[in-house]
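Translate sequence into structure tokens.
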Amino acid sequence: MIRKYASFVVGLVILASPIITSAQTTSTNSASIIAALEQLVATLTSELQALIAARGQSTTAATSRKDSNFYVSPTSAMSGPAPLTVSFTASQNAGSGQVNFGDRSTSSIAAIAEGSPQTDLYFNHTYTSPGTYTATVTNGLGTIIGTTTVVVTESNSNTGNSFSCATFGTLQKGDTDALTNGQVSQLQSFLGISPTTGYYGAQTSIAYQNNCGNLNNAQPTSVPGMNKYTDSSFGFSFWYPSGWTISEIYFGEKTGDLTYYLNPDVKHLILSNGTTSIEIGENTSQYGIPTMECPTCMESIYFDSDTGQWMDHNEDRRFDADVSKNTMGGLHIFFDYAVPLSATNYVSVLSDGNLDGDFLINTIVATNPAVAIPVPTSQQLATIQTEASAYADQ
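Result follows.
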């Protein structure tokens, strides 16, 4: 339309030129005609210029609506110890958008009309965990059009006391350090899990629930007629009758089938009343927990750190292990004799046949509360009392 209008004006000027010249040479009465034509040309030229200017403004507005002139910049310190609060400014002159703070938190930017004056928007955000975060702004089309980096260091106390259960409330099973800017390892350190794996699996989930859940599951401090044995170095405890004795032995010199299954370099306990005994082994194995019922079956239980699950390896088959049987401390019982405390350490309980070792094994609890979730205190008492009744018959 503008191009046709311009051609019309130019043509009109060309046609008017000889008329004006002729009028100037033939009669002075043509002055009024000349003036009218000059006025017409001037008017048309002015309108053409206005149309061209209007077209240019329309193109600029369309571009602005598409790009949304946002930017993000920190107005406070971009680095410091956790928790670190950073203030951001985002500038907007059209459209809508979103600020992504880099730690799974976002804030929306509402749309404003075209041609609105530039508006500064302010955002405050607190980073609770150490890591390097990239804060971004995207326009309504999802295009990143502004970025800035925030570096959060360890707390000044360097003890983890600045963190709480709520700090890690957004993490979930399956998360990794790569997805959470290192927060999984920070959570595992907070829970006392060592070494940290950077993968949020079953162990981390149990530890988090045990530390941060209100389960009323404290261990009983005393039970009439029963004693509590604790080995803090290996990380477990169990209950036994007050009249029984515990002795420590090592199997380095022992021969026979038992040596084949149990590590001869670690401590073992013998619980006895003089006629009946139970053997509690402290075992370390890099290859999982072997079955003792079928030595030729080549079956073992091992912990898969990639999935955070216990697996049953039976010859050439692998499948999820049965974790339905547990101690009062929430620890799994495998093959009716083994209780894992970690991926490599486990406790074995073997009786001499005169007493069902199940009673003792049910009272095992990890001394590290991050390992497993004990049952409520009332259920622990019931389990210990059941054990006391079983021993009373021996």
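Note: The first helix runs from residue 2 to 26.
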